[in-house]
Amino acid sequence: MQTLYDKLWNQHLVHTESDDPGSMALIYIDRHLVHEVTSPQAFESLKLAGRKPWRLNSILAVADHNVPTTDRSQGIQDPISRLQVDTLDQNCDELGITEFKMNDLRQGIVHVIGPEQGATLPGMTVVCGDSHTSTHGAFGCLAFGIGTSEVEHVLATQCLLMKKSKTMRISVEGNLGLGITAKDIALAIIGEIGTAGGTGYAIEFTGSAIRALSMEGRMTLCNMAIEAGARAGMVAVDDTTIDYIKGRPFAPKNELWGSAIAFWRTLRSDADAVFDRTVTLDATQIKPQVTWGTSPEMVTTIDGIVPDPARVSDEVKRHDMQQALNYMGLSANTPIQQINLDKIFIGSCTNSRIEDLRAAAQIVKGKHIAANIKLALVVPGSGLVKKQAEQEGLDQIFRSAGFEWREPGCSMCLAMNDDRLIAGERCASTSNRNFEGRQGPGGRTHLVSPAMAAAAAIAGHFVDVRKLSNE
Amino acid sequence: MEKFETITALVAPMDRANIDTDAIIPKQFLKSIKRTGFGQNLFDEWRYLDHGEPGMDSSQRKINPAFVLNLPRYQGVQILLARANFGCGSSREHAPWSLQDYGFRVIIAPSFADIFFNNCYKIGLLPIVLDAAILDYLFEEVKSTEGYRLTVDLQNQKVISPKREEFTFEIDIFRKQCLLNGLDDIGLTLQHAEKINQFEQKRRNEQPWLFM
Ligand code: SF4
User: What pTM was computed for the model?
Assistant: First the structure.
């Protein structure tokens, strides 16, 4: 009677000081994804200590945070960003680490390319110096973000020292309504349990609504487990998982494929497994979600209003809400549908996969962005997603609707490159964080699904996608 | 890592919940390939009135006089009082680096985000969890008493107030030993190299597709 998390934990346990479940354990790491922002200091210390990476073929590297999304033939203009990307290239070349360089077709956001390449496989432990590593849990993996010291630790030892988490099951049952996506489930969950609700837990998402999701949808959901405070989110392996992996470059082939899938099918919680906490959501009740504040838990539905701090009794909370409203330039009780936008961002490791782009394209097809929208960006998650979208003609749909069609990377999700909001600008974004300054200093972010962002681009303000899809 | 010994130091209050890593150290400073020098940009967007970019001379920038860490009474602070879910958001170790570089040795809050909490230990910054009610009390004390100092005794796992009140905190025994002795995690793990090799070999036999 083990949970999926228990199984993954036990399968990777190398050493523990005592049988006490709260004691530190040495956990083996199968896949180490590396990007330019959190690795340079780790490589430097590794070298200074005279150490070498333990297992080179566990590592896959890519630059994504700093890369420009416009013409790349001239290289990176910003000298500081360029130095960081060059440093990654040098470290990888010198040590013999597989890296997809900026102009490689396979380059993209680290959490998009791992699964796309089949480098993320069920039963693995997957780590990366990035909190959204939780994304890979969609494949029945134990996947979580680590800091730079831990990046160095994994490079040097192929292991991490950690404590076992508690387990939480979030069960979403029933059919999702038309136009409702995994992003809406994720935001609804965060609205329910709060951004610290999952702290100390590994979350497993279960229930008929989760089983019905595509791998893209499951990745979106697990991606946002960290926004609920949980380091790891996961979904059990089923046919959807296996079908997605088949034939990908790093996936097992020929005679290994059979043994792999036989093992992968065991990666599910036993029927009688006990979780430390269980949360249940009714899928039929989930509406399109829109955040109004500066934390993902400050969320409401498209037919809702901006909440009124005056009605909150907890003093700290009321103060935080007021601060968020001031920053966001919103007044209490404003209907969400009356919020006008300046920019639209469709991208990020949450929502930049082919299915996301298809959903957005379907909404904007044959229409044009509203006059008040200064910039609408589509940033595909990888070069391969971009190519596929172009084969399907999605780029043309976006371009004729007034969107800019860019090169892959993190882009305006965190605005480390040139794609950013100017102070006071308001953006409907498919990314995962609406923190102050996240998309540029003074910028105001509203988190939504790709369909909702697309619909807002056309209308110039938030609208209910459910009404559009009925037309 | 530097050894953590008992400290008695000035305390400052950050009276706001869910302080995220983007607020602690904004992303433009993550472009550095070094581990040091982040202290001047800790809480950059709250602390300065102008917009900060890497390479700027911080001494020439306009300070936000209202920001708590800019108040004269909190100069030389080493202990930070914070609210729930401190350090949420990204995995950037730059957040603990910047707090440490600024001079902080200890952060006390009712709860921390997991990755941030973990990252702190790796560099010898001590995150302490105390009850929300105790934090409420300490916030009041620090605000009403100029020069308020707390003692943090790691060995005995106590936070001690000027009135000799003692608040006990929990810490994992392994982490405590690492901090007290300034031990290097990697060196400790490599003592198990033989075990890791055996584990790896077994795994390679059972799931060869993981090693291609
Ligand atoms: S897209 Fe955004 S959240 Fe995802 S890895 Fe890049 S910066 Fe982080």
Answer: 0.94
